[in-house]
Design goal:
Helix content: 25-40%
Structural class: alpha+beta
Radius of gyration: 14 Å
Largest sheet: 6 strands, antiparallel
Shape: globular
Number of helices: 4
Number of strands: 6
Order of helices and strands: HEEEEHEEHH
Strand order of the largest sheet: 1-2-3-4-6-5
């Protein structure tokens, strides 16, 4: 997957916004104002930071060399997924969905309800 495909996939989800809250090269996707994907547009190699269940995060890191503890993130709850081609696109989409779902589960009840009404 490339950044355009990732952007399109993320923006198709309900309640998602994009922005550059940290600097002009770190693109952040949020659901109801909570981050679920971060990517450095000028990073080489490029990668996504994705929220992940801690047990699954460890499992994925053992299976894929291009999935590492989240760079500049809470290492137990975030993975950096390098999109150099070794991680299948279907798995990248699944991990984006997983990150989105984890963030939605952690929203306040009123925000979850507002999201459902979008």
């Amino acid at each position: 997957m490339n950044i355009e495909e990732i952007r399109e996939y993320c923006m198709a989800k309900p309640g998602v916004t994009e922005g550059f809250p940290f600097d002009e090269t770190t693109l952040v996707f949020k659901v109801m104002n909570k981050m679920f994907v971060l990517t450095g547009l000028e990073r080489d190699p490029p990668f996504l930071n994705l929220k992940c269940d801690p047990d699954r995060a460890i499992e994925l890191r053992g299976q894929y060399e291009d999935i590492q503890p989240g760079w500049h993130m809470h290492k137990q709850q975030w993975n950096s997924v390098y999109y150099s081609g070794s991680v299948p696109a279907d798995l990248v989409r699944e991990l984006i969905d997983h990150s989105y779902d984890l963030v939605v589960q952690g929203l306040k009840k009123k925000d979850r309800e507002a999201l459902m009404n979008l």
